[in-house]
Amino acid sequence: MAELSDDELLAELGVEIEQPKARTYTSQQERIIAGFEDIVRFYEEHGRAPLHGEDRDIFERLYAVRLDRLRELEECRELLSALDKHGLLTGRQAEDQVSPSEIDDDALLAELGIEPTAEDDIRVLRHVPSAEERRAAEEIANRKKCEDFAKFKPLFEQVQRDLDSGARETRRFVRDAGFLKADITKGQFFILGGQIAYIAEVGETFKAPNGESDARLRVIYANGTESDLLRRSMQRALYKDDAGRRITEVEAGPLFAADPEEGDLESGTIYVLRSKSDHPMVAQNRHLIHKIGVTGGSVETRIAGADKSATYLLAGVEVVATYKLFNINRVQLEGLIHKVFTGAALDLTIPDRFGNPVKPREWFLVPLSVIDEAVERIRDGSITRYRYEPTEARLIEG
């Protein structure tokens, strides 16, 4: 008698063999399995699990992110346990992974970096952010209260006035605009996440792991918060924000001279006023408190009736200096001057003729000699590098 196989012997004995039912998977589970098989193949080819890092191949970085997610999710570990012959799911999780939250099937697939195409190719990868990109997003979101916001608030108020008057503009932050990471410097304003952002400080430049230069920024936001993030992270966030904008500087336009040359057109006058108000604060600082303005007409006409206007502190004024303008945009120039002296704006509220509180603008606690210096720097084009430092009562670079 010929030798029978076990199955044939059982059949001869009249014993029915119950075939194990093939396990069926949902399309989601099939994609998760296929994604894990990619990681297993990587391990078998390289003898190690995939790692994070900009120096790694893009697919290795994607596999590393995917493995982090699979390790986090219990349902994935259970599904893949029989396939995990190398113990990949029990390995130490990456330090920079993000804790999972409850997500639906589609979100789960997105977290695993898998997206079906029209042909239902289960191994086509959706965009999976690198570890660095996730850290950058976390940095942008990690804002805290700005404890010294009071000293920055006038800057935001002035920028808003400049935008309203047209002295400043907003421009789209795009890659092909010739605007490089190194151009994000101290003193610039941007719009990020719907908020005006001010670059208050730029730390020392250092080399990032990929060899590019970077620096840590202190960014102040108009809502009174701040963040401490890398320049490259700031740039990346502006690129990705559809509403991200760069706010232009106030431009003085063509420089002006004290005397016109042939063919020049007079554009107006910078005037500096001193108040005759008997308000205690004004009386005590009379030789420091000045109103700086620009007019296209006569200064005398401009200040007529000053004693009836809260703009002029409801008192007469003395004209202490004037500077003629030629071929220059008056609105932009006035915005530039006010920007330089923003830190010294007079914080004074007085009642108008009807008893309503009014906070007069364009008054500054600045010595006349410093105003003269500012005008000279406007003439030679160097004013954009300077700001007034009230504690030192002088113009400083920065």
Description:
- The structure is a single chain.
- This protein has helices at 6-12, 27-46, 58-72, 74-80, 105-112, 131-141, 153-165, 231-240, 280-284, 299-303, 330-340, 368-380, and strands at 144-145, 170-172, 189-192, 195-202, 206-207, 213-214, 216-221, 225-230, 245-247, 266-275, 289-295, 317-326, 350-351, 357-358, 363-365, 386-389, 394-397.
- The radius of gyration is 34 Å and the shape is elongated.
- A 7-stranded antiparallel β-sheet has the order 1-8-7-4-3-9-2, with helices on both faces. Strands 12-10-11-15 form a 4-stranded antiparallel β-sheet. Strands 5-6 form a two-stranded antiparallel sheet.
- The protein folds into 3 domains: 27-128, no CATH class; 134-247, SH3 type barrels, CATH 2.30.30; 266-397, no CATH class.
- The chain is of the alpha+beta class and 398 residues long.
- Mean pLDDT is 76; it is low at 92-105, 107-130, 135-140, 176-182 and 252-258.
- The chain is built from 12 helices and 17 strands.
Task: For the structure shown, list the relevant keywords.
alpha+beta; 3 domains; SH3 type barrels; four-stranded antiparallel beta sheet; 398 residues
